[in-house]
């Protein structure tokens, strides 16, 4: 596998890069960004935080607006930001070009329904292929991985962590889709990618996974109370109820006045990275 370097720039003493490769998982080229902090070098292996973005995003949204580099440089964290779907020739999109399905909206599942099953394999990409590429090309300690995400990416972070115990040492989310089987974005996406057998959907729903026995050691979630998607799509109360019943320590911080944007995310990004660093260091 050849990794093509699209750009590298020094930042906060480290290196912010953007890279592209031919993906076996998706059958397309995939682009991602990586920040390597200044602690790299002399054989040091550093913990890795994977950040999964939300609807309409590429790697670029968080890379340009997430304001994670200062904290990663202080804490010695590698920060990896993948794309949210396959893209390119032959990759099917939403039939109406809607923003909430298809391109920019892979939902971090492996699709089983045609015409999406061929390329839309974001779960395999995030869980298997991308970590292998990070391990082979960056000074990463793959025994110290964390995952976080926003909105659709918060759903991705939660579900991938819940379904793969032991893989990630810590999990956090900004405004996650808490229960896709109970909101319009999720019903459309899971139906479109997985078909109408709703029993299959539960394996891709954080709240349902917890109800069905999956566990996390702890969970940090920030949610703006002025987020326009809060009541109809995000529904943190469902996640809160499931965590309470399961005894999962959830820090759900309702943030007054904050919306769904990167102005919100960037405000609390350093808090999340510190929270991850504490759990990545002590093991
Ligand atoms: N109003 C948005 C809805 C999608 C949206 O808010 N996407 C969030 C993630 S769910 C986002 O991060 N957008 C890109 C950005 O703010 O840079 C649109 O129609 O494009």
From TrEMBL:
Q: Which EC class is the enzyme in?
A: hydrolase
Catalyzed reaction equations: S-formylglutathione + H2O = formate + glutathione + H(+)
> What keywords are annotated for this sequence in UniProt?
Hydrolase, Serine esterase
Which Gene Ontology terms cover its molecular function?
Answer: carboxylic ester hydrolase activity; S-formylglutathione hydrolase activity
Q: What is its EC number?
A: 3.1.2.12
Highest taxon of source: Bacteria
GO biological process annotation, one example: formaldehyde catabolic process
UniProt-annotated catalytic positions: 151, 227, 260
Classification via InterPro entries: AB_hydrolase_fold, Esterase-like, S-formylglutathione_hydrol
Q: Which family does it belong to?
A: Belongs to the esterase D family.
Function of the protein: Serine hydrolase involved in the detoxification of formaldehyde.
What is the protein name stated in its UniProt record? S-formylglutathione hydrolase
Q: Read off the lineage from the record.
A: Bacteria, Pseudomonadati, Pseudomonadota, Alphaproteobacteria, Sphingomonadales
| Encoding gene per record | fghA
